[in-house]
Amino acid sequence: MKQDLFAWPEVVGDANIHGPLSFAIPSTVAGYGLMQKRWGRLALAEVIAPALALARRGLPADWFTTLKIANAAAILRRYPESARIYLSDGLPPVAPYQGTPGFLPLGRLAETLERLQRAGAEDFYRGEIARAITADVTALGGVLSAADLAETTARVLPAMEVAYHGRAWQLAGGLTAAPTLARVLARLEAAPRGAAPDAAWFTALANALRAGYAERLAGLGEDASPAVAREGSAESCTTHLTVCDEAGGMVAMTSTLLSSMGSRVVLPGTGILMNNGVMWFDPRPGQPNSLAPGKRPLTNMCPVIIRDGDRPALAAGGSGGRRIMAAVLQMLAFVTDFAMTPAEAAHHPRIDVSDAETVHADRLLPAAVLAALAEVGPVEIVEHAVLPINFACPNLIAAAPDGVRAGISDVQSPWSAALAQG
Predict the structure, then answer these.
(1) Helix, strand, or coil here: 252?
(2) Is the pLDDT at 292 greater than 90, yes or no?
């Protein structure tokens, strides 16, 4: 059995975890394109411009880059373009002892974004970029085809809405963390609440999370039949962006490469670092979550927008694999149930329960909370830090009725930030 993000039977050569056979159809560009067409106020070329500027600049070669690349180096070195970009002289880049770190060139990524600016998102699936992707995948021995790309479409689904303590929580729905979050909120509705989250509240939360994940791991899948997905909590490569504009609109958007650095394969013709989404699927045939054409897997994404009447008041989401849902829930509950500011919520210690068994508790929690949690099940006391990664990395924006917005991110990722309008 493979003990990585999922406890599947091990595949020969880990072909579902890294390399060209691990690629699922890259659909993020289609999603971005549809969002821009339907709700965007700027031209696509304008929207792409900041990303293009970053691609031209390159990846900051700071200490966190060293850490992330070193963690993936054993596999990155197997793929020539990945090794060329990330492993200069065969080793991870190291920031200078003093002074200013430089930047790592990212292959042909800037050229690909320039092409998207000129030709639009469709080019990624049916144009010059699509041809470059399929040529590289074929050369690498992969099976992602021109037809796979050409048939890619983005969908808009109704938000899943859940009432919790008098507010409407809008969730992404589908095969995300949303159905589990809805069940956890229902169980938490009657939990005892004081002025601050105390031992009784954290115990109720732990029990609700345990029950929610037991249901999730036993019964959720695309076929609505018992799924065998045993999602793990290893390091993931997910990004969550929470944004508000001056008109009061809010966006909570999560995208992912799945594992840290995805498939670890950079396509030389485009500079695209490919995902390893095939890892989401059970490699055994005949299972509810088996790999199949057009199949969608169960994922951990958990973007949330909370309404105050008709006004979006809070938006949040996070990165961190299966830990995402518990982190997002606690950040939002700290603000809505305990009147914390976003900064107070971000710095308050929390728990994680994402395997239906063990509670992982921040060592900074009060002793009474840790003791109460230990009475109801196994507890592992851990540190909330950059590495090891014991908690997800949520971010949140709160919009007050007077128009003041406050945003906060999390200590777990040094690259995360809250950026003010201006």
Answers:
(1) strand
(2) no
- Unique residue bearing structure tokens 């992707």: 133
Q: Are 270 and 132 in contact (CB under 8 A)?
A: yes
Prior bond of 414 cis (ω within 30°) = no
The residues of the chain that CATH labels 3.60.20.40 are: 160-256+298-408
> Please, what sign has the CA dihedral across residues 303, 160, 326, 30?
negative
The predicted-structure confidence for 206-249, as pLDDT tens digits, reads as follows: 999 999 988 876 655 444 333 333 444 456 788 999 999 888 89
pTM for this predicted structure? 0.91
| CB distance 405 to 342 below 8 Å | no
Q: How far is CA 124 from CA 4, 108, 121, 260, in A?
A: 30, 14, 6, 23
Structure tokens at 390: 């014991």
Residue 34 in contact with residue 156, Cβ under 8 Å?
A: yes
Token pair for 4: 């990585």
Tell me, which fold does domain 160-256+298-408 have in CATH?
Answer: Glutamine Phosphoribosylpyrophosphate, subunit 1, domain 1 (3.60.20)
User: Which candidate, 397, 391, 400, places its Cα nearest to that of 418?
Assistant: 397
Q: Across residues 188-202, what is the average pLDDT?
A: 95
Let me know the angle formed at the C-alpha of 338 by 333 and 343, rounded to the nearest 5 degrees: 75
Residues 6+ apart with CB under 8 A from 351: 202, 205, 206, 209, 326, 330, 359, 360, 361, 362, 365, 373
pLDDT tens, residue by residue, 311-345: 999 999 999 888 999 999 999 999 999 999 999 99
Residues 390, 281, 274, CA angle at the centre, nearest 5°?
75
In degrees, rounded to 5, the angle at the alpha carbon of residue 21 between the alpha carbons of residues 52 and 259 is 60
Return the pLDDT at 231.
44
- In this structure, what token pair is assigned to residue 285? 């045939």
Can you read off the two tokens belonging to residue 331?
A: 């950040």
Q: What is the C-alpha to C-alpha distance for residues 77 and 86, in angstroms, rounded to an integer?
A: 9
